[in-house]
Amino acid sequence: MSMEDDLIGYAKLSQSVTLDNDLSMFRRFGALNIRNILYLQSELQTLELKLSNLDKDNNDIMKGNAVWGQSRSWYWASKSQGAQDAGGEHEEGYWDLVLKIRSLLDRYNTALRHQAWLQSLKSPSKRSWTTLRSFVQANRTMLSEKDAEYIAEKNRRDLVALTWSEKEALSLIMEEHLSKLFKKRVNDSDLRNHQIGFISEEKIALVVRLLAVALSSILPILSIVVLYFIQSATVRLGLIIICSVLCSTVLALLSNAKNAEILAVTAA
């Protein structure tokens, strides 16, 4: 018996996820992160208004340099820390408010940076999500029902993939509908124990590459040969349109070309 047979719970799930980078998907908690930023923003707005009101109240030279200088001098501002009132409670001073805003701004800016990074992450592919969900469902005793909800259908839009590679449209189609033809042979007993099917992306990439080379060579030559033997101008025009459509379709399916690049190649 291998050590993998002894793994249970989160130990089994985490070890299984490490077998394929595409399975590294987790919730972004998008709504909670946005809500946290909104709370911080509202709190900062309140403190901003409070600081502005203090600046207005302190703008009276008759109150002396210790007060009038708080809005104009770091020295007087730093000396304006609060003190205890008659009831023993701490009264917030000008500098106390500045330090509070400084600390909150740091949290707010950090939250914004994290949110920007989260939004740059891509969602996992349907195949990867389906694979991991099926694995979790097949091992119902591995996680509690509540813990396994992170991979449920209702949370799919909230998932992010830590690794994501841009693939050609044809590669995605093959992974989705022809996965049985590209199954990776697994000789390692430890991998087989995880009950996860693996697809050979290398084989798919090779097939797409061969198709791209073949079609990019055949289509131009075929169009020239066909046009050579056809005399009718109307038929020739129709064939030119068909060849242009085929060229742009092949380019879209077999490459990662952007729309502008496809238009440029077709126009040429």
Please explain how this structure is put together.
About 4% of the residues have low confidence. The radius of gyration is 32 Å and the shape is elongated. The protein is mainly alpha-helical. The two termini are 63 Å apart. The chain is 60% helix and 2% strand. Strands 1-2 form a two-stranded antiparallel ribbon. Helix 2 runs antiparallel to helix 5, helix 7 crosses helix 9 and helix 10 packs antiparallel against helix 11.
What's the quick description here?
With 268 residues, the chain is mainly α. It contains eleven helices and two strands; from the N terminus they run αβαααααβααααα. A two-stranded antiparallel sheet has the order 1-2.
How would the blueprint of this fold be written?
Layout: H1 9-17, E1 25-27, H2 30-58, H3 65-68, H4 74-78, H5 94-120, H6 126-138, E2 159-161, H7 169-177, H8 189-192, H9 201-229, H10 233-254, H11 259-267
Antiparallel strand pairs: 1-2
Helix pairs in contact: 2-5, 7-9, 9-10, 10-11
What structural keywords apply?
60% helix, mainly alpha, single chain, 268 residues, 11 helices
Can you list the strand order of the major beta sheet?
1-2
Shape: elongated
List the uncertain runs: 83-88, 187-192
> What does the main sheet amount to?
2 strands, antiparallel
Percentage of helical residues?
55-70%
